[in-house]
Amino acid sequence: MNIVICGGGMVGMTLARLLRLRGQEPIVLERMPEGAFIPRGYMLPFQGFPPLEEIGILSELRSEGWDIAPREDGSSVAICVQVGKILGALARDLPVEYGHTVTELVHDPTGRVVGVVAEGPDGMRTIPADLVIACDGFGSPVRQMAGLDAEIEPLADAALSFMSPEPGGVSFAMAYTSDGGHIGTLGWPEGSAGWRSCDRVGAEAALAPGVDAIKKMWVELLPESEKAISGVTSIDQVRYSEPSLLRCAEWWKPGVLLIGDSAHFFGPETGVSSGIGMGDAHALAEAIRQHPDNSDAAAQSFITWRSPVVRPYEAMDPGRQRKFTIGDREPGPGEAWPPRS
Fold first, then answer.
1. What phi and psi values does residue 330 have, to the nearest 5 degrees?
2. Are 318 and 181 a contacting pair, CB within 8 Å?
3. pTM for the whole structure
4. Rounded alpha-carbon distances, angstroms, from residue 4 to 96, 119, 124, 181
5. Residue 128: is it exposed, middle or buried by C-beta count within 10 angstroms (0-12/13-18/19+)?
6. What is the CATH T-level fold of the domain 3-151+245-319, as seen in this structure?
7. Which of 61, 181, 188, 321 has the fewest CB atoms within 10 Å, i.e. the most exposed one?
């Protein structure tokens, strides 16, 4: 099967490695330069363990990170690890065409997708494909080119987050606030990160109180974060965002399939987006192994297997199921952000 994977991030590389283990030679197109990634706090959830174990890098990643909720049998619920470690392990010896952007889907006279047009360092080229797989994230240009609709639902609250070079001393800690918000921290051997929900006031207002006020607030609301946030010395280490949930009624049309964040995206409380995406990759690789000459059958098998897994997460995401959220109740002392005069 001629397979083009659009997106060489975590899910795209996981899929490529699993396919290669099954005798396929997919083409992986990634728009960013080799080695480039967005630094962020990262928790690898248990849903991603089986594909990474099959690839052969799970034990390596566990040794590079800190277990979250370790169990008596030696397993854990998740691993907090520097995101570059997992991307580097996935990219090792994997052919990826970096600096390539998919600009167009190629259709046959019946409307079926039969390839992509990609722009790279050497110009434009057309790449034939029996199956084009969109692993290109929340904003997925491939999803939009394919005409597969996405339902994007802004959360009621925004998020304030930090990145710190100081290892926090704890792999994970989280607490809820009186108004339905949440605050947490992640730690790994080389650093730490934190997040909290806040009012949707825009970046300027959210960051206006300054670094010292942000650090003081974090320690007061989540004492476990004190060591982590001590490494925050500049407002440039703090970020404001307004996250949204994403779900697609359809993941497939003949010749093109959505997986990972291109197909579904969960709220920060859920903490499973990348793990579910890796599970998608695992299921799709196996579906293609079972139907190596029929991409439609492979896609249908994938949908049959993954819908019962993914759809409940979409329906029960805390962003949709909270009994109350920010704005419904008054925050407790010191909980409101930005602070109220």
1. -75, 135
2. no
3. 0.94
4. 11, 14, 16, 41
5. exposed
6. FAD/NAD(P)-binding domain (3.50.50)
7. 321
